[in-house]
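Predicting holo structure, magnesium ion bound.
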Amino acid sequence: MFFKSNFSYSNSSTSYSDLLLEIDSGNIQSIYFFPRKREVDVLYKNGKKEKVPILYNDQLILEKASENNVDLTINNSRKESSAANSFASVGLFLIFVIAIVLILRSTSKFASRALGFGKNKAKFVTIDDVDTRFDDVAGVPEAAEELKEVITFLNQPKKFLDLGAKVPKGVLLIGPPGTGKTLLAKAIAGESGVPFLSIAASEFVELFVGVGASRVRDLFEKAKEKSPCIIFIDEIDSIGRQRGSGIGGGNDEREQTLNQLLTELDGFADNSGIIVIAATNRPDILDSALLRPGRFDRKIEVMLPDLEGRKKILSVHSLSKPLSKNVDLAYWATRTVGFSGADLANLMNESAIHCAREESNSICDNHIESALDKVTLGLRTSVICSPNMKKIIAYNEVGRAIVSAVKNGIDSVDKITILPRSGYIGGYTKINPDEDTVSSGLISKKLLLSKIEIALAGRAAETIVFGKNEITQCSINDISYATNIVREMVTKYGFSVIGPVSLESNNDILIGDGFLRNKSIIADNTYSKIDNEIINITKISLQNSINLILKNRILLEKLVEILLNKETIENKTFKKITFDLLKV
Ligand code: ADP
Ligand code: MG
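Done. Tokens:
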């Protein structure tokens, strides 16, 4: 390296033999050798410098040079490489040090985070952030009324104190998903004007034991500073589950968190101005200690909306949308039995999207219709099926529609279609759920039997039209649906000749609960009785369906013809055709 920097040599014009001659004639002052290089640097006495190619490991030049007293210098390339090596090792060392520093820094960050785990992550929503009001929550008047009282507890506690009454500490909102529990809690926050601490119960739980408990402590501490205020814990079942349940006897972290929550609920004094509101759709799995008086002693059920409620929710969600004057929301409320508030909000949103797609200015009935199809039936697909397959599907669907019309009235059939949708290949007969059943949750034996007959009607129609040996597996889903209902009728509800005996082989594995619940307690003999009964009921139902469709053969052919031409039969058309022809 130094060598090169000191001298610069011209490339050789001298040949090897010339070099030997030059050495002999004493014109050369010194020669520099490079180990492993096939050239030498030559310095002439007259000052000329030159690189001359030589043989590898050339001995002749060495001999000649020493004979003629030429300076011989071996350039030590080790020196260069060792210098390079030392640079490299210093570099490596530096990288190593930097890496260690980085690792240490990130672990210390991690450590400080681990120590700070207990710090509350609860999102603090102040009154300015919540613009939800009770007006935004429609169709749940009872729940809203009860909750309005909570606001009075907070704003005018004196009214209750003077009468010696204790203000309730906890309110539990119970109801199916999407009925507006979270929305109600937000409305209270919006209306009451007191601070509102909202947290999802799952946020309490971390990998580390004890973190959840300290978060609960933190949350309540914060609440006490802000009193009067509301704490809202969403989806409380994720920590409030019955303790000691689950495989292996439960989960330490969750149980500690729950214990802490129970302690805190007891801990703050009555009338301290804190009210805890929690929401869940699984009240059945909540720990009983959580539900006793003094904790979540008020339970408010938020039910699926009824006809009137659905209409109100639909109108709430159409407020900000340009709805055509011709749209009758009461009609759409009749078409959406069993829909939750969230489903209805989604329906109106989809309608607006359909409207935008068609670039029209206002939402009309046909937009809502396509949105309803999308929400209930799924997306249209372009699976093309053969005319023969279409015919089979059409008979299946019309068969179901006819039996449904006989059993539950013409109104029960919402729509028949043989257009394929994603999720299933065949067609679809949309049957409105029974309003009473949806709202009360009670199902009669008669209704269940009619459900089974409707489900098997596709098979019945095929049997009639194509013959016993030509049936297809088109109704496979309906058959398994029917079988499930029959099994429940026999083993759960006591609707069979076996009598009102619960014969469920419970599959819940709740080992930690103290005993193994899926232990079979049913005798083999009873099993075969159950199976016989299931087969029996199914066969009778199929026969009933066949009889009903045979009676309405003319109607069947007529509807199938229309369905094959138009692909869809709407409720109104169905009513018109069926009204005169249906034989009950
Ligand atoms: P959950 O009961 O599961 O907590 P949410 O309160 O989160 O349900 O409801 C989800 C959405 O559905 C809400 O943001 C709202 O748009 C709509 N929604 C649900 N119930 C109602 C209702 N009763 N009135 C108006 N909108 C509702
Ligand atoms: Mg919710």
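Confidence is low (pLDDT under 50) at residues 1-7, 508-517.
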